[in-house]
UniProtKB/TrEMBL annotation:
One of its GO terms (biological process) is fatty acid metabolic process. Transmembrane segments: none annotated. The keyword Mitochondrion does not apply. It comes from the Eukaryota. The keyword Transcription regulation does not apply. This is 3-hydroxyacyl-CoA dehydrogenase.
Length: 359
């Protein structure tokens, strides 16, 4: 974790682009959905790199202009209130591209965050590799598709040389964020078995140098969902099961998490916090003291939720319909003001985490 003088400041102290790191890099962002625009805000806020963006949607510039201001810190005001991105364009920091080839041809880093679809990603990388330099770093911000699968199709591709195929596998790794990445510290760096250690090291050092906020964490090997999403999705599965079975409402479950696991895990992860539960015997004492209760809950989960499948009905009817209806009733569809409120809360939580670590 950073030991800079004021690591909890979000956003970082105001500075001109020349004082920010990575001015030598040209980043190509492929895919400008919620994650892509959030990464765009991260790069524009914490680096002075040139960023080229590409997405096939015809209203790309208008789409980015409507969302990007929500993600940028107030210390980066626009020079044109009617077009909040014009300042970045006029300074050369931001380029809108009409083709993938144009976006990547001079990029030192290509960062893909398209749909969670293996065929789409394989097609995208095949096109990228026809235009990008063989020295460029290749990152995918997928939520669960391993780097090795994204390039597995290259073994049967004759349009690329053997050297290009081998080099691509050595350079590609997953940079998995937690949404929204411009605020959430975690960046899971997940190499494939073919990824070179130097590629992993570059990604880690890139984010450490760029931002006192972000915490790039190398993951030792590929697994479905990586680490953060495995934990998150298993908890979400149990949450959906509890709501579908009528144990509690969606809104009450959210409040239970906010009043218990949320604050606790903001201070320390499950191992660190349960280590306190065993007194002077730590985690060993904790497991002995309430191991029976843990076992009962795990057994009940197997009985009640163990068969709870994403594409099947839960007890009492279709669980998806129950969950969707309750969440819509409780929260509606997120609006701009909801995004701002979320981001203010996340800034404060992360700020407190940093303050605790410094003391």
């Amino acid at each position: 974790m950073s030991t800079t003088e004021n690591p909890s400041s979000l956003p970082p102290p105001s500075s001109t682009p020349k004082t920010l790191p990575h001015g030598e890099h040209h980043i190509a962002l492929i895919g400008l959905g919620a994650i892509g625009i959030s990464f765009l805000a991260l790069h524009l806020t914490y680096t002075s790199a040139t960023v080229s963006v590409y997405d096939p949607r015809p209203d790309l510039r208008e789409h980015v202009a409507s969302i990007l201001p929500l993600y940028l810190p107030e210390s980066k005001p626009s020079t044109n209130a009617s077009d909040p991105i014009v300042g970045f364009i006029s300074s050369g920091r931001l380029r809108f591209c009409t083709s993938l080839a144009d976006a990547v041809h001079s990029a030192t880093i290509v960062q893909e965050q398209g749909p969670e679809n293996l065929a789409f990603k394989q097609k995208t990388w095949s096109e990228v590799l026809r235009h990008v330099s063989e020295g460029s770093h290749l990152w995918s911000s997928t939520s669960g598709i391993p780097a090795s699968e994204q390039l597995a199709h290259l073994d049967s591709t004759s349009s690329l040389s053997e050297g290009t195929r081998k080099s691509a596998k050595e350079r590609l790794l997953v940079v998995h964020p937690f949404n929204p990445p411009h605020l959430m510290p975690l960046l899971e760096l997940v190499p494939s078995p073919s990824t070179l250690p130097s590629a992993l090291k570059f990604a880690s050092e890139f984010f450490k140098l760029a931002s006192p906020l972000h915490r790039p964490i190398p993951i030792a090997r590929e697994t479905k969902g990586f680490v953060a999403n495995r934990l998150s999705f298993i908890l979400f599965r149990e949450a959906c099961s509890l709501v579908a079975r009528g144990v509690c409402s969606a809104a009450d479950l959210d409040e239970i998490v906010r009043a218990s696991l949320g604050p606790r895990w903001a201070v320390g992860g499950p191992f660190k916090m349960y280590n306190f539960g065993g007194g002077d015997r730590g985690i060993e004492g904790f497991l002995e003291n309430i191991g029976g209760s843990i076992g009962e809950v795990w057994a009940d989960n197997d009985a009640q939720g163990g068969g709870f499948k994403f594409d099947e009905e839960g007890e009492g009817g279709k669980w998806k319909g129950t969950v969707v209806e309750q969440v819509r009733q409780a929260y509606g569809v997120p609006r701009s003001e909801d995004v701002r409120k979320r981001d203010r809360a996340l800034r404060e939580v992360v700020k407190v985490q940093e303050e605790i670590e410094r003391k």
